[in-house]
Amino acid sequence: MAEIAVVAIFVAKPGYEEQLREALEGIVGPTRNEQGVLQYDLHRDVEEPRRFVFVERWESQEALAVHARSAHILAYRKAAADWVEHGEIRVVSKIV
Q: pLDDT tens for residues 33-87?
């Protein structure tokens, strides 16, 4: 199994920054307890406070797939659907 990394960016709709922040913070703890997670850190853009960025590392693509189907992620997606203006998730593998 090859380790993978994820960069996930979510931009809140204007006026929904704090709701989105709270929802994203709420998935950090449960995710850090998942099997296969190596790193799961939430950041807020210094220059654009509506932008939140996850930096993640997973043991494998399979571990990430299990995460994507987890109850807390599915609940987050449902709750935050109206708060996100733009979302982008990139799965990458380390070169060097």
A: 999 999 999 999 999 999 999 999 999 999 999 999 999 999 999 999 999 999 9
pTM of the model: 0.93
Helix (H, G, I), strand (E, B) or coil at 39: strand
Q: Give 42's contacts (C-beta < 8 A, 6+ positions apart).
A: 24, 25, 28, 52, 53, 54
Kind plus residue range of the DSSP H or E element containing 55: strand 51-58
Residue 64's SS3 state is helix
Give the count of beta carbons closer than 10 Å to the beta carbon of residue 38: 13
> Among the CATH numbers 3.40.1830.10, 3.10.290.10, 3.30.70.100, 3.10.310.20, which is that of 4-92?
3.30.70.100
